[in-house]
Design brief:
alpha/beta, Nucleotidyltransferase, domain 5, 2 domains, 11 helices, 5 strands, Transpos_IS3
Length: 278
């Protein structure tokens, strides 16, 4: 009868008995998959369904002590129907136009963002955030090119020069300026302003700028703003105070707890400590 039924199913008798013998292992594997899937689902939901497989893997290793390969995470997420929300491209809208007295600087950095030394490369830029009833705030940040740490930030409701001056002032308070450090930005009117460029030279900083209309020349900074807008529900903030609190909380989390694949699965602060120790 077994031989007859195996023939109907187009399987060998030895294959059928091997399948029966492996039943306990299959059951054990399925139970382990269910336990792993619970952890994955918990992390996925805690990140507002925006966590990718690499982010989930790093959180599992650093906070849950679980080491899963990427293929297994993909398989379990696909089985459960978990799909990360993908950020749509949002072209940068220029908020001002440089006058003739504003001079651009050459692209000294040339996309060499990571030079293996904290404080060697500073990346800066600003973005806008909508909140309340259609109100707009502007966020200026400085990011370390080697560690991806956000060293200084400033949130303002206006686009005056104070937004970049205060950002640089906060940078000087929290981080020593190395000789011949590089400050890289786009060609926005804040960074081409003659007074701002003079202040940067007085600090002993080399100023570098992206090529016109080339977002890739400052890609790490653009990537951070994209991540921030993904994970901070800025449109749901009712006032500037609430928005500021959420931004401060996210940047602290980003620096301290958000593990990054390109940093050896460490957070920016952990990676900075690692570089300084090395």
């Amino acid at each position: 009868m077994v031989r007859y039924l195996c023939g109907l199913a187009c399987v060998s008798r030895s294959g059928f008995y091997a399948w029966l013998k492996a039943a306990p292992k299959r059951k054990q594997r399925e139970e382990q998959d269910r336990a792993d899937l619970e952890h994955i689902t918990s992390i996925f939901n805690s990140k507002n369904q925006k966590a990718g497989i690499r982010q989930i893997k790093m959180v599992l290793e650093n906070e849950h002590g679980l080491v899963l390969n990427l293929k297994k995470i993909v398989r379990l997420m696909r089985k459960e129907g978990l799909k990360s929300k993908i950020r749509k491209a949002n072209p940068y809208k220029r908020l001002g136009k440089a006058t003739q007295e504003h001079q651009t600087c050459p692209n000294v950095l040339n996309r060499n963002f990571d030079q293996g030394k904290p404080g060697k490369v500073f990346l800066t830029d600003m973005t806008y955030l909508q909140y309340g009833n259609g109100q707009v705030a502007y966020l200026s940040c400085v990011k370390d090119g080697s560690t991806n740490e956000i060293l200084a930030h400033n949130l303002s409701t206006t686009l005056g020069m104070d937004i970049v001056y205060q950002t640089m002032s906060r940078l000087r308070q929290v981080h020593p300026i190395m000789p011949e450090s590089i400050l890289h930005s786009d060609q926005g009117f804040h960074y081409t302003n003659p007074d701002f460029q003079k202040n940067i030279r007085n600090l002993g900083i080399i100023q570098s700028m992206s090529r016109k209309g080339n977002c890739w020349d400052n890609a790490p900074m653009e990537a951070f703003f994209g991540t921030l807008k993904d994970e901070v529900n800025h449109r749901e903030c009712k006032n500037l105070k609430e928005l500021t609190s959420n931004i401060d909380r996210f940047i602290s989390y980003y620096n301290q707890k958000r593990y990054q694949w390109g940093l050896g699965k460490m957070s920016p602060v952990q990676y900075r400590t690692h570089l300084l120790a090395a």
